[in-house]
Write a structure and sequence with these properties.
The complex is a heterodimer of chains A (216) and B (322). Helix content of chain A is 35%, strand content 12%. With 216 residues, chain A is an alpha+beta fold. Chain A has three domains: 36 residues, no CATH class; 76 residues, Beta-grasp domain (Ubiquitin-like (UB roll)), CATH 3.10.20; 64 residues, [2Fe-2S]-binding domain (DNA polymerase, domain 1, Orthogonal Bundle). Chain A is elongated and about 60 Å long. By secondary structure, chain B is of the alpha+beta class. Chain B has two domains: 52 residues, 2-Layer Sandwich (Uridine Diphospho-n-acetylenolpyruvylglucosamine Reductase, domain 2); 222 residues, Enolase-like, domain 1, CATH 3.30.390. In chain B, the strands form three sheets. Chain B has a five-stranded antiparallel beta sheet. In chain B, strands 1-3-2 form a three-stranded parallel beta sheet, with helices on one face. A three-stranded antiparallel beta sheet of chain B has the order 9-10-11, with helices on both faces. In chain B, strand 10 and strand 11 form a beta hairpin. Classes of the chains: A alpha+beta (216), B alpha+beta (322).
């Protein structure tokens, strides 16, 4: 396995690049300086890194996390094991249970099936990033109000899925919630309460506390 | 996962060069990381292709639409004009996995995904698809397996997009050895029909660039039935597309997924439907033709009536009656 930079990367080989620099140098102007910068950036980003640990910078909950990670480290492992953000949970580690759900930008993803190294440059939000000034987010509060959890292991994932849904669709109906949460599993079977919590967070009240909401 | 090196490619040519003989392209990563975690594939380098320029676009055209291979399934699902122009494609996309997966899963990855056969996916099983001697599903637990196959492996194609693309007669443009090659869905999976080791016709280093969908079929529909209501693979999926002129079908195509290593298409049925006014009897006749040569196994015979019903329903949905 190669750890060093390759000699030749086709169109972007260092040698041909610097050769071409020689010919343009005579007529160098600002525009060309910019294109040189762009070209240099390209070469650097096409650099082969790893398999040993390399610097990875993540932006999580508004803060910069500078980590040293092997390319194979998943985003979930980077959050839980290489920093102290244990809000996203590891369940299946196979993009199936949803406990590891975080937001990449505004979209929910499974952090277990995403490499940390490819998650650079985009704002990542975990459940720890939702409460502001010690005040729970609307979705978190609704989960509490509706008692939408038992063991609580799946809760951060559900909270992130519902948070993302409400950003995209502030007034969802029950079907929208089910569609958005289909990728999260609650093994305690709290789904009806979760559905109520999601609707409450959206300001859509269900009839009563004891109402049984069909979740099939 | 075993260790690997990593690079981000900025052009298809450099992606190809970086991936070399033993690397893998990384886009959504859903299938790839699953395979790597189970040690089902090995890769010495992962080449991130998500920065390849222009491949994340959906472009409308008079004669055909172009969908870049890096377009996500969620992008398709949320695209209002796709819903209007290719409703079946919208329906297929919205049935793919879960929101979290659709957000990252790409068109290219959906088409190129590996078999879901549980013997193949079990890391301790050395089955036919992994160059072993035996298909364990053939006389084993085969309720999710194929009704048709051209070889001794009975794992079916499960890409929902392949099913609907087949009915729309879409073409994948694949970069192979520096050349763009064009493959319709039958061609894109042909090798899986012939060769138990293959999941599709892509060769090492091939890169799907985009998919072209002709606009000739103004109506399309997709239906699938799964064990679970949501976030599940189809037991059988069915897609149909056609134009309708004076109440008669024009250039109809029907394709089924999860019952064959390739999107299952029967040309005689397509020809039979051409020019017909759709009704229950016609749809039933077409379904009979499409499933005529089905070879059910011990546990998957239920797929025959299921597929039959799905074909009829999908065709009638095309008509707007279902």
């Amino acid at each position: 396995m190669k750890n060093s930079e390759p000699e030749n990367l086709g169109a972007h080989s260092r040698r041909t690049f610097f050769k071409s620099l020689g010919t343009v140098a005579a007529t160098a102007a600002t525009a060309q300086v910019q294109s040189v910068a762009a070209e240099l950036e390209k070469i650097n980003t096409e650099k082969i890194v790893g398999p040993n640990a390399v610097p990875v910078t993540l932006r999580v909950n508004g803060e910069k996390l500078q980590l040293l990670l092997e390319p194979r480290v998943t985003l979930l492992d980077a959050l839980r094991n290489y920093s102290s953000l244990t809000g996203a949970k590891e369940g299946c580690d196979r993009a199936t249970c949803g406990a590891c759900t975080v937001l990449l930008g505004d979209t929910p993803i499974y952090s277990c099936q995403k490499l940390a190294i490819e998650s650079q440059g985009i704002e990542i939000t975990t459940v720890e990033g939702l409460a502001k000034n010690e005040k729970l987010s609307k979705v978190q509060q609704a989960f509490l109000d509706k008692d939408a959890l038992q063991c609580g292991y799946c809760t951060p994932g559900f909270v992130m899925s519902v948070t993302a849904l409400l950003k995209k669709n502030p007034r969802p109906n029950a079907d929208d919630v089910k569609h958005a949460c289909a990728g999260n599993t609650c093994r305690c079977g709290t789904h009806p309460r979760i559905l109520q919590a999601a609707l409450r967070a959206a300001g859509v009240e269900t009839a009563s506390k004891t109402e049984v909401v069909d979740y099939v | 996962m075993n260790a690997f090196t990593y690079a981000t490619a900025h052009s298809p040519a450099s992606a190809r060069q970086l991936v070399a003989d033993k690397g893998a392209y990384l886009a959504g990563g859903n299938d790839l990381l699953g395979l790597l975690k189970e040690y089902l594939v090995s890769a010495d380098i992962l080449v991130n292709i998500k920065s390849l320029p222009g491949l994340d676009k959906i472009e409308r055209g008079e004669k055909f639409w172009t969908i870049g291979s890096l377009v996500t399934v969620a992008q398709i699902e949320d695209h209002a004009e796709i819903k209007e122009t290719f409703p079946g494609l919208h329906e297929a996309a919205s049935e793919v996995a879960s929101q979290q997966i659709r957000n990252v899963a790409t068109v290219g990855g959906n088409l190129a995904q590996h078999s879901r056969c549980w013997y193949f996916r079990h890391r301790d099983t050395q089955c036919l698809k992994k160059d072993g001697d035996l298909c364990y599903a053939l006389n084993g637990e085969n309720r999710y397996h194929s009704l048709f196959t051209g070889n001794t492996c009975i794992s079916p194609v499960v890409s929902s997009l392949a099913t609907i693309f087949a009915s729309l007669d879409a073409t994948a443009i694949v970069l192979r050895d520096g050349q763009e090659t064009r493959q319709n869905m039958a061609e894109l999976y042909q090798r899986a029909w012939e060769n138990p080791l293959a999941h599709n016709s892509l060769k090492n280093g091939d890169l799907i660039l985009r998919v072209e969908i002709p606009t000739t079929r103004s109506r399309s529909a997709y239906l699938q039935v799964s064990d679970r209501h949501a976030f599940d693979w189809a037991l059988v999926s069915c897609a149909a597309a056609a134009d309708v002129v004076d109440g008669k079908l024009k250039s109809p195509r029907v394709a089924l997924g999860s019952i064959s290593p390739v999107p299952h298409q029967v040309e005689t049925a397509n020809r039979f439907l051409d020019g017909k006014v759709l009704d229950n009897a016609t749809a039933t006749q077409a379904a009979d033709m499409i499933l005529k040569d089905a070879k059910p196994l011990e546990h998957n015979a239920y797929k025959v009536p299921l597929a039959h019903a799905l074909i009829r329903r999908t065709l009638l949905k095309l008509k707007g009656d279902a």
